[in-house]
Amino acid sequence: MKKFSNFYIFSFASIMVIVVAAVLSVAALILQPLQERNVAIEKMRNILSSIHVESTAADAQEKYNRYIVETFVINSEGEKLEGFDAFTIDMRVEMRKPLEERHLPVLWA
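Above: the chain's sequence. Below: its structure in token form.
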């Protein structure tokens, strides 16, 4: 049976950890746009289900564009705000803000 030195074992383990970390980092960077697309599709599906329209991941964007005719952002007094995208508003963040600072999305179906 071969006997390996401690240096060899630690060197091999260190190299393997670095290689695996590099591969996982590259995979995460490559898959990030796909993950963001999946999050957007899931959000579209949730919006569609709130107006009782069933959709799949394949047809969610097409149905969203068909049923949601207008989107805009309002403040707490109902005034329309320019320069904001209603689809990208994170309600979890907005609900933590004071009422006067909130930006509320309106999706017109």
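Residues 6-108 form one domain.
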